[in-house]
Design a protein that fits this description.
Blueprint (H helix, E strand, L loop, with lengths): L6 H11 L2 H21 L13 H26 L1 H8 L3 H6 L4 H22 L1 H5 L9 H28 L3 H25 L4 H9 L1 H22 L14 H7 L12 H4 L14 H10 L6 H24 L4 H15 L9 H5 L3 H5 L5 H21 L3 H9 L1 H4 L2 H28 L3 H29 L4 H8 L5 H6 L15 H6 L7 H26 L2 H7 L1 H9 L5
Helix pairs in contact: 1-6, 2-6, 3-6, 3-8, 3-9, 4-8, 4-9, 6-8, 6-11, 8-9, 8-10, 8-11, 9-15, 14-19, 15-16, 16-19, 16-22, 19-22, 22-23, 22-27, 23-24
Length: 568
């Protein structure tokens, strides 16, 4: 089949590129790049272009690394649902039964999913080229940066498509894609920053080694997905929407879930085989015992294994060797919860809409608060327990390390930030699920809001600290970081001198406690509590006015009804 005549590619491109979001995404991306370059542009009246400009080199690196991180975060959102979306729409079997060979399907899905990112990358070239006349950066450095960026995006897209071929839901494939891609993206950022002083070596590695690794990963995954489509193991939609967990555990390799044993029963309690006692919230019991794990535990097991594998390297280094950087381990714990937490709550209400059971639920005697609390607490319980698995090394370090004995108050503050982050991610996901119509849309909206709250303010503060240090604008940018748990962790005052000394009692630590040093932590706690209270208040109001919730699921029906003329 001719590449240009690939029907999958043509259909995906026509559908995706004609959506309004393509134009608005491109416009927003260009505006952000233009604003960054405008505020980082040298303010001198005269510039000496005969010498290299260190600030211009920093600007180009900032633009490239920003694009690299954004592309890494956006690639799964476009590609993770390429195959799993067909399964959710019940069109996967018809696609495999068509005359199109699996290789053409995979290529068409991958290229169509990455077209948006390709447009964004190409559109950013004029902005980057605008910085070249300032000096300090050569054309070959820009070339190496874009070769590395494009090759990485292709590899990340193929990883996302591969995850979509294993999971029946886009939400599960999206989370696993992020868990796999983010460590690889972090390695790419560290590589670019580490070889900053050795431009020739960085150019050679970026032009040869990085594309070679990306091609190897993409080729291996391409043949694996094609072979899986030739002999699919997930064919047939009738009766297979719910997975038997006992049969799944019999064939699983690696971690398996035992509902009747500790600590698995903390996040996966046994299935109920008796009548429900009086006073039990039926929504909470249904969500926790059957709904969350109705599609199996593959995503859950992969999340546990990948997170523990990454934590093994960080816990020993940050908690027992370089203890002054302990806040970064808590940032890793928060990042894991940000990735995993929304998946258990983003489909709480949208799944009811998709199954057309939301109106039936709203007409029962169950109160709106029971519905909301049951769905919120069930998702929060699973995500918080999974994240707590990463905190046991912290309790071990506090018990064994005398240095952490002298920092009990900062350690308590770290734990408070963790608890508030778990609550906020679950609450935001439930709010987006209440406001959106599809689970995939709800999940992407949740990640977008979290990105704006958690990562954008620290990025603005870092930019302002580099280009506007010591000014009022820099202080204002730092104040914006009260929305981010990452900034809250990093700004909690850890007594570095006592880490290598003798431990002190809690009363002595409390006597040396300076409230002014914890103003950022207190501001984050206050903002988070107000945000969660506002979200819960709005959701309760929407459920009390039941039509405000049900109208999202019946929007298409009302549109079709309004299009039919009423005869007298």
């Amino acid at each position: 089949m001719n590449f240009l005549e690939n029907p999958v590619l043509q259909r995906e491109l026509l559908v995706n590129l004609r959506m309004p979001r393509s134009f608005w995404l491109l416009l927003l991306y260009q505006v952000i790049l233009g604003v960054i370059v405008y505020f980082a542009w040298p303010r001198q009246v005269r510039l000496d272009l005969t010498v290299g400009s260190g600030s211009n080199s920093n600007l180009v690196d900032l633009v490239f690394l920003g694009q690299y991180v954004l592309a890494s975060l956006m690639a799964p959102s476009f590609a993770a649902g390429a195959v799993s979306g067909e399964k959710e729409r019940k069109t996967y079997e018809m696609l495999l039964a068509s005359p199109i060979n699996p290789a053409s399907i995979v290529i068409g899905k991958l290229i169509a999913a990455l077209t948006h990112l390709a447009m964004l990358i190409v559109a950013s070239l004029p902005v980057v080229m605008l910085c070249l006349p300032l000096g300090g950066v050569s054309f070959f450095e820009v070339l190496a940066a874009y070769v590395m960026l494009i090759s990485s995006v292709v590899a990340f897209g193929m990883i996302s498509v591969a995850c979509g071929s294993f999971f029946p839901r886009t939400s599960s494939s999206l989370v696993v894609s992020y868990l796999v891609i983010l460590p690889l993206a972090l390695l790419g950022v560290l590589f670019w920053v580490s070889f900053r002083q050795d431009g020739e070596t960085r150019f050679q590695l970026a032009m040869t080694v990085v594309p070679g690794i990306a091609i190897a990963i993409s080729t291996a995954l391409f043949y694996m997905i094609s072979a899986r489509m030739i002999y699919p193991k997930d064919m047939g939609s009738d009766g297979t929407d719910v997975v038997d967990l006992e049969k799944e555990n019999e064939t699983v390799v690696g971690v398996f879930i035992s509902r009747d044993k500790f600590p698995d029963r903390l996040f996966a309690p046994p299935l109920r085989n008796t009548l429900m006692p009086d006073g039990v919230n039926p929504i909470y019991d249904k969500e926790l015992r059957s709904e969350i794990f109705g599609q199996g535990t593959l995503m859950l097991r992969l999340a546990i294994q990948i997170s523990m594998l990454l934590a093994m390297f960080l816990m020993g280094w940050l908690l027992f060797i370089q203890q002054q950087y302990a806040a970064w381990y808590f940032c890793f714990v928060v990042l894991f919860n940000v990735l995993v937490g929304p998946v258990f709550s983003a489909g709480s209400v949208t799944s009811e809409r998709e199954r057309q059971t939301l109106d039936l639920l709203l007409t029962t005697l169950i109160t709106p608060w029971q519905i909301l609390s049951g769905k919120l607490v069930s998702g929060l319980r699973v995500s918080s327990v999974l994240t707590l698995f990463l905190l046991w090394p912290v309790f071990l370090a506090v018990c064994l390390s005398p240095g952490f004995h002298a920092n009990l108050i900062p350690m308590f503050c770290y734990f408070v930030v963790f608890c508030l982050t778990c609550l906020t991610t679950a609450n935001l996901a439930l709010f987006c699920s209440t406001s959106c119509q599809k689970t995939s849309t709800s999940l992407i909206a949740t990640y977008s809001v979290i990105l704006m709250l958690y990562l954008v303010p620290p990025a603005i503060a870092l930019f302002a600290n580099h280009y506007y240090a010591g000014t009022v604008d820099g202080e204002m940018a730092r104040a914006l970081t009260i929305t981010s748990p990452f900034a809250a962790n990093l700004l909690i005052p850890l007594d570095v001198e006592s880490l290598s000394g003798l431990s002190s009692g809690f009363s002595q630590q409390f006597a040396k406690f300076d409230l002014r040093a914890y103003w950022h932590f207190a501001a984050y706690v206050l903002f988070t509590l107000l945000l969660n209270g506002a979200l819960l208040g709005v959701m309760v109001w929407m459920f009390n006015s039941r039509w405000r919730v049900s109208k999202f699921g019946n929007a298409s029906d009302r549109d079709s009804d309004s299009a039919v003329p009423i005869s007298s």
